[in-house]
């Protein structure tokens, strides 16, 4: 089964429908958005940008791509793929938006699994960082790529079956707007033991925070329908992999100078992965 191209987009300026005309998407009010040569569309209006180059930088995206490509977070990708496969048994057609897709490692892994299950997929990676979306398109040119914000997703109401949000910044109201009745939000967030060995090297006092609070999303017809703990130990990480982890995870980089110096000496040490996958479903009855 092929991955399908997006056919519907909304203009970020007036929310009118955009139509594709060759390499340009246009609305009835003549706002135009060109398809970049890598095949993504930038729908982030200048007035909505808080910085000239919002989101993760080119360096952060490259570090995350190299770290994830080494396969050490594969248990997370496998668990996400299994979770999504379980959600779409009855679908022959499925649309997935990865909101804050980064360089597309998880979206691509999930799609590879679903395509094995003969699902016809429209899969879209959206990120506020153009470097992320560019890298996602290079990873898999068949994924649709949108530069936009989770705060204003340029997709029509009730157009998606699943919104994936891994280690990201969920905007539940907006996710719910674009989901179809019976749709699902699939989230992956770090648990208290995630990277504990690294965090205990770089911080004087290590916090074991619970995963992000999602209670504000659990209202009306939206309920937590599944919750999966993914716990694993990585193979020993090289000095280069520790450096990539620090670059791709900016809060680790904000550690004290002593902390960073200790981290810079780390090598040949495994670390713990502790991730919670949660599924928030519309119309779910426990
Ligand atoms: C920690 S990374 C996670 C990336 C990817 N989901 C993953 O798990 O590898 C967070 C991502 O969210 C993006 N981001 C930050 N603010 C955003 C927003 N308002 N809308 C969409 N993406 C955003 C960043 O550019 C970055 O790529
Ligand atoms: Zn317009």
How does this model look, in words?
- Helix content is 29%, strand content 27%.
- By secondary structure, it is α/β, with parallel strands linked by helices.
- It has a single domain, classed as Vaccinia Virus protein VP39 (Rossmann fold).
- It has an 8-stranded mixed sheet. A 4-stranded antiparallel sheet has the order 1-2-3-4, with no helix packed on it.
- It is globular.
- It binds S-adenosylmethionine (SAM) and zinc ion.
- Zinc ion (ZN) binds next to loops.
- GO terms for molecular function: methyltransferase activity.
- This is Methyltransferase domain-containing protein.
- InterPro entries: Methyltransf_11, Methyltransf_Superfamily, RlmA_N, rRNA_m1G-MeTrfase_A_prd, SAM-dependent_MTases_sf.
- Pfam families: Methyltransf_11, Zn_ribbon_RlmA.
The topology string of helices and strands comes to EEEEEHHEHEHEEHEHEHHHE
Number of alpha- plus pi-helical segments = 9
Quote the distance from N terminus to C terminus: 33 Å
How confident overall, as mean pLDDT? Answer: 94
Hetero ligands: S-adenosylmethionine, zinc ion
Main sheet characteristics: 8 strands, mixed
Domain 23S rRNA (guanine(745)-N(1))-methyltransferase N-terminal: 10-51
Protein name: Methyltransferase domain-containing protein
GO biological process, one term: methylation
InterPro entries: Methyltransf_11 (IPR013216), Methyltransf_Superfamily (IPR050508), RlmA_N (IPR048647), rRNA_m1G-MeTrfase_A_prd (IPR016718), SAM-dependent_MTases_sf (IPR029063)
């Amino acid at each position: 089964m092929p991955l399908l191209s997006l056919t519907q987009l909304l203009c970020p300026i007036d929310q009118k429908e955009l139509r594709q005309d060759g390499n340009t998407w246009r609305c009835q009010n003549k706002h135009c958005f060109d398809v970049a040569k890598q095949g993504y569309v930038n729908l982030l209006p200048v007035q909505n940008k808080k910085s000239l180059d919002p989101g993760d930088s080119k360096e952060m995206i490259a570090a995350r791509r190299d770290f994830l490509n080494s396969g050490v977070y594969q248990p997370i990708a496998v668990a996400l793929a299994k979770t999504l496969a379980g959600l779409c048994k009855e679908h022959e057609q499925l649309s997935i938006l990865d909101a804050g897709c980064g360089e597309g490692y998880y979206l691509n892994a999930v799609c590879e699994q679903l395509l094995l299950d003969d699902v016809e997929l429209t899969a879209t990676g959206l990120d506020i960082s153009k470097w992320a979306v560019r890298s996602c398109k290079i990873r898999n040119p068949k994924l649709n790529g949108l530069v936009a914000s989770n705060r204003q997703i340029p997709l029509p109401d009730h157009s998606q079956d699943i919104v994936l949000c891994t280690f990201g910044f969920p905007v539940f109201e907006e996710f719910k707007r674009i989901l179809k009745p019976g749709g699902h939000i699939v989230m992956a967030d770090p648990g208290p033991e995630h990277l504990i060995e690294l965090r205990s090297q770089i911080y004087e006092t290590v916090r074991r925070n619970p995963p992000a609070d999602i209670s504000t999303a659990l209202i009306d017809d939206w309920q937590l329908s599944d919750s999966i703990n993914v716990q694993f130990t990585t193979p020993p990480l090289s000095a280069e992999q520790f450096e990539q982890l620090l670059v791709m995870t900016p809060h680790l980089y904000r550690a004290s100078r002593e902390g960073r110096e200790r981290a810079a000496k780390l090598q040949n040490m495994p670390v713990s992965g502790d991730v919670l996958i949660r599924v928030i479903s519309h119309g779910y009855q426990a």
